[in-house]
Amino acid sequence: MADAPAHPERTPAQIEVEGEIAADYLETLLDLADMDGDIDVQHEADRAVVSIVDSEEGTVPRRLAGPGAQVLEALQELSRLAVQAETGERSRLMVDVAGYRADRRKALEQLADRTVEAVRESGTERSLEPMTAFERKVVHDRVLAGGLHSSSAGEEPNRYVVVSPAPAGE
């Protein structure tokens, strides 16, 4: 018997509701912490992206992402739990703080490009540092676009990407 998909297709209306719930939750957290920041909700593919951005009252401290984005990941997980508590459905929403994820994506794409070139030149696989699921996805997509093979290895929170030459015939 086939398993149900982990994340069934979301309608635009469901994505919008998820974004609104998460935005309200994050706004409350900012108020409790007496921090400035506005909430921006966008749709990216099949998920809501909720960003804490600068407001007229002040700038969002980049440190809110935390070392290694640990605080950002916690804010995202708490926001997903708030959505699940209200809707009864798991959410794939993404939270960003002060453009951290966009900057991190760019750095990861550059890392993936350098790694693809190194693997092509050497013909041997390379292992990267541990990454979050979001970060691994960015690298996997870039490696695939570069024509090589990648896989994840290790156990959370220390899962990492292994980039290897494409198997013969691909």
From TrEMBL:
Source organism superkingdom: Bacteria
Entries under PANTHER family matching the protein: PROTEIN JAG (PTHR35800), RNA-BINDING PROTEIN KHPB (PTHR35800:SF1)
Protein name: RNA-binding protein
Domain R3H: 102-167
PROSITE patterns membership: R3H
Region of interest (Disordered), ranges: 148-170
InterPro entries: Jag_KH, KH_dom-like_a/b, KhpB, R3H_dom, R3H_dom_sf, R3H_KhpB
Membrane-spanning segments: none
SMART domains: R3H (SM00393)
Pfam families reported in the protein's UniProt record: R3H
GO MF annotation terms: RNA binding
Entry coiled-coil feature ranges: none
